[in-house]
């Protein structure tokens, strides 16, 4: 077991996330638990203001901008939820936000960003395409790029979920199943929970048609996928992050890859236990 990464733990413990969010519940799922013969809990990140954990990382990163950076504004690329997190944070902090989104992004997410006064540009078929365009625009306009996952402050923001789980789940041993796209969420959760309790198992869950993290860990380097599936659009990433890959290599115990049919079944399972309707990425780990 590697030594705890105290720098990340410190960033998580001193995060600015709780300026704008409250702790989300860890909800028991009685029907799924009975069917599987073990206790299952849902971390209800859909109850946050933008209905996604992405607000945590985006706000934490933007709250740490210098006055000059805030004055110039920010840009990001996102498949949807990070974009809403940046738009929300920009509105709260009074920062201009420019967001590049893949053309496959659901209209509901595009509209949500525009309602928060973000400037939205639709470009490319995947996050990677949108990201490349965003970096070009960043150079032209002198904006600060807010990465959706490969940034220590973003990872620390997402890591506050691990902090909350550690306080809500008192068992000595348990497994945490985490949906994976670029890796920011699982990196933050894993590095915090494993640092305080190595007995906790962290399981990465990816679609079988967007499994960049699994392929990268198996290869030993960051693999770039030729294409990604679009059904689970929130995790449709062709290449995982440099920071996130290194953390996943050290701290994640195992991988599960799932089919589109299994994701659809998970959406139904979550609804039956909670009456909440999850987007595919939100139900992925179930």
UniProtKB/TrEMBL annotation:
What's a single GO MF annotation on this record? L-serine ammonia-lyase activity
- Looking at the record's lineage, which domain of life comes first? Bacteria
Keywords assigned by UniProt, alphabetized:
Amino-acid biosynthesis, Branched-chain amino acid biosynthesis, Isoleucine biosynthesis, Lyase, Pyridoxal phosphate
Q: What is its EC number?
A: 4.3.1.19
Instruction: Specify the pathway.
Output: Amino-acid biosynthesis; L-isoleucine biosynthesis; 2-oxobutanoate from L-threonine: step 1/1
Q: Say yes or no: keyword Metal-binding present.
A: no
What this protein needs as a cofactor is:
pyridoxal 5'-phosphate
Listed Pfam families? PALP
Give the protein's biological function.
Answer: Catalyzes the anaerobic formation of alpha-ketobutyrate and ammonia from threonine in a two-step reaction. The first step involved a dehydration of threonine and a production of enamine intermediates (aminocrotonate), which tautomerizes to its imine form (iminobutyrate). Both intermediates are unstable and short-lived. The second step is the nonenzymatic hydrolysis of the enamine/imine intermediates to form 2-ketobutyrate and free ammonia. In the low water environment of the cell, the second step is accelerated by RidA.
What is this protein's record name? Answer: L-threonine dehydratase
The organism's lineage?
A: Bacteria, Bacillati, Chloroflexota, Chloroflexia, Chloroflexales
Q: Which gene encodes it?
A: ilvA
């Amino acid at each position: 077991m590697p030594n705890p990464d105290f720098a990340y733990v410190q960033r998580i413990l001193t995060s600015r996330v709780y300026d704008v969010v409250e702790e989300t519940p860890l909800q028991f799922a009685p029907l799924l638990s009975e069917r599987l013969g073990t206790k299952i809990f849902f971390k209800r990140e859909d109850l946050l203001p933008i209905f996604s954990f992405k607000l945590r990382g985006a706000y934490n990163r933007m709250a740490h901008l210098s006055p000059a950076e805030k004055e110039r504004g920010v840009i990001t690329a996102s498949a949807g939820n990070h974009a809403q997190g940046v738009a929300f944070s920009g509105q709260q902090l009074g920062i201009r936000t420019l967001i590049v989104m893949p053309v496959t992004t659901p209209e509901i997410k595009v509209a949500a960003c525009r309602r928060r006064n973000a400037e939205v540009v639709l470009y490319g078929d995947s996050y990677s395409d949108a990201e490349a365009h965003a970096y070009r625009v960043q150079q032209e306009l002198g904006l600060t790029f807010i990465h959706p996952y490969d940034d220590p402050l973003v990872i620390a923001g997402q890591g506050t979920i691990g902090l909350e789980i550690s306080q809500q789940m008192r068992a000595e041993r348990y497994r945490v199943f985490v949906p994976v796209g670029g890796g920011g969420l699982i990196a933050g959760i894993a590095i915090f929970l494993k640092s305080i309790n190595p007995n906790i198992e962290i399981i990465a869950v990816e679609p079988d048609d967007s499994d960049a993290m699994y392929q990268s860990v198996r290869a030993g380097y960051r693999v770039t996928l030729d294409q990604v599936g679009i059904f689970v659009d929130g995790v449709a990433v062709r290449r995982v992050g440099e920071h996130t890959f290194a953390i996943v290599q050290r701290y994640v115990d195992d991988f599960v890859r799932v089919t589109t049919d299994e994701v659809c079944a998970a959406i139904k399972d979550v609804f039956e236990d909670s009456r909440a309707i999850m987007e595919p990425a939100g139900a992925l780990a179930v």
